[in-house]
Design a protein that fits this description.
Elements: H1 3-12, H2 14-34, E1 39-49, H3 55-75, H4 79-89, H5 95-99, E2 102-105, E3 112-119, H6 122-144, E4 155-161, H7 174-199, H8 206-212, E5 217-222, H9 233-236, H10 241-254, E6 264-269, H11 276-289, E7 294-298, H12 306-310, H13 318-322, H14 328-331, E8 333-335, E9 340-343, H15 352-356, H16 359-371, E10 374-378, H17 387-395, E11 398-403, H18 409-421, E12 426-434, H19 461-471
Parallel strand pairs: 5-12, 6-10, 6-11, 7-9, 7-10, 11-12
Antiparallel strand pairs: 1-3, 1-4, 2-3, 8-9
Helix pairs in contact: 1-7, 2-7, 4-6, 8-18, 10-11
Length: about 475
């Protein structure tokens, strides 16, 4: 994925990221407030050697102590040092558990051992640190003293710093914990957002379509929450953004398949409820408004909807003509101002595929092409049945409607394959139900002019006069 893809994912999933950020901060704050405070106290022991005071003895003694400091540091956590501490302070712990709370370190090339103790009680931490340094001094003195009577240890340990009672705990570190919690929340949020986008199979925008097929995108239809109440938006509200989407589609359709003399198209989709019928009806109205003589044919002989959308009589129609029960001139109904004509589906037959693939249907299509400038066939979805694929091969052009956020990539791939398998040419795709806000929002710049192009505002005469005076 490119940088802009990650930016789009962040814009799309910012709520999830912020939510996990707050969860991380809240969890860190809760842990910090409920965790038992831990205090740390440190004492330091200086290691030196007994010498006669000559320069050579001092150099040799210094090298000797530096080499022995590491050994003495490891000796701090052993029972020989810790058992006297437990006995002196009366601690109810074992030497092994006590050693886990004590650390001894020696800076490089120095003769100092720093003993650090952590404990939930600050006084006890200081007492253990001081007692441990005292016990280490005694143990080293005993180990390094030769067995001969009157011998003196060549090594001397001196407590250089006494452990003081700490006033502030070292754990939990509230600011650090909150910062880490917030960072972990952000990382998890971004990770989940990227994972969700990677596993997402639904088509949401033009980029997702291009990952499936190279078929050109003819246009995009914006989402309208009231589409079910007003399916013929081009007729009901011609100045709405959705109506403008259909006019942009009409413009692009005029440049489609220039080499094909017949301007007839099958409107279909992968699955149902993708908006193919309303797309075909509104496109037909937009084409008729531009002056073309248009025929809208309801070729969905299983669930016809065009008659209901257009408000015409649907008892007789295409099926009656195909079986010879009615003449074409008797069932084609004018709609609107006379440029648009509607042919309903008629009675639903038991063999829709056979009727649409019959020689009579091919002859009707030739007759349609002679009488009309553009013919729009509304057909069933491609994946459930083969009606659309059969008809598209005869018509010579298919337009697949893809619903953003509903159609899956494998469904679109299957629809394209269904048309390819029968040799039906695909003229293009139309994206429907595109969001108007957010990272996947529909932009008019891809397909046509913006809202309001080609319209003028109806302004009362008095208001218009005032505007002219203001301009002057």
């Amino acid at each position: 994925m490119e940088l802009r893809d990650y930016i789009r994912i962040l814009r799309k999933s910012w709520v999830l990221i912020v939510l996990l950020l707050l969860v991380g901060v809240g969890a860190a704050a809760a842990y910090s407030l409920t965790a038992t405070p831990v205090f740390s106290a440190s004492s330091k022991v200086f290691v030196s050697t007994q010498s006669t005071g000559t320069a050579q003895d001092l150099v040799q003694g210094n090298s000797f102590t530096v080499q022995r400091v590491k050994t003495y540091s490891d000796l701090v956590a052993t029972p020989i040092v810790l058992l006297p501490v437990i006995g002196t302070l009366g601690l109810n712990v074992t030497s092994e558990s006590l050693s886990q709370r004590i650390t001894a370190s020696a800076p490089l090339d120095t003769s100092i051992i720093e003993i650090t103790v952590t404990d939930t009680n600050p006084v006890r931490a200081a007492d253990i640190a001081n007692a441990t340094s005292q016990s280490l001094t005694a143990v080293v003195q005993d180990i390094e003293t030769p067995a001969e009577t009157g011998s003196v240890s060549p090594v001397k340990l001196t407590r250089a710093q006494q452990a003081d009672v700490p006033s502030t705990p070292v754990s939990p570190n509230v600011p650090l914990n909150i910062a880490l919690g917030g960072l972990i929340g952000i990382v998890l949020g971004v990770g989940f957002a990227v994972l969700r986008e990677t596993l997402e199979t639904r088509i949401r925008n033009e980029r997702d379509v291009k990952q499936v097929t190279d078929v050109p995108i003819l246009g995009g239809i914006v989402f309208d929450s009231k589409a079910a109440e007003r399916p013929l938006i081009v007729h009901v509200d011609p100045r709405s953004p959705r109506a403008e989407s259909f006019r942009s589609l009409r413009t692009n359709l005029q440049f489609l398949d220039v080499g094909r003399p017949d301007r007839s198209f099958v409107i279909t989709s992968s699955i149902e409820s993708e908006g193919k019928s309303t797309t075909g009806a509104n496109l037909a109205i937009a084409l008729a408004d531009a002056g073309s003589r248009v025929l809208l044919v309801d070729a969905d002989l299983r669930r016809p909807k065009i008659a209901d959308y257009m408000g015409v009589e649907g008892a007789v129609g295409l099926t009656d003509v195909l079986i010879g029960r009615a003449k074409l001139s008797d069932v084609v109904q004018p709609w609107g101002e006379g440029h648009l004509f509607v042919l309903p589906a008629g009675e639903m037959p038991p063999n829709p595929s056979e009727l649409l693939g019959s020689a009579r249907m091919a002859a009707l299509i030739k007759e349609f092409n002679m009488q009309f400038d553009v013919i729009i066939f509304d057909t069933p979805p491609l994946l459930p049945v083969t009606d659309a694929a059969i008809l598209a091969k005869i018509v010579g052009g298919a337009i697949i409607v893809v619903a953003a956020g509903r159609t899956h990539k494998n469904q679109l791939k299957g629809a394209v394959a269904a048309l390819d398998n029968v040799g039906a040419p695909i003229s293009g795709l139309v994206l429907t139900m595109l969001p108007t806000k957010g990272p996947d929002a529909y932009g008019y710049g891809h397909y046509g002019y913006g809202y309001g192009y080609g319209y003028t505002e109806d302004v009362p005469e008095e208001k218009l006069s005032r505007r002219i005076k203001n301009l002057k």
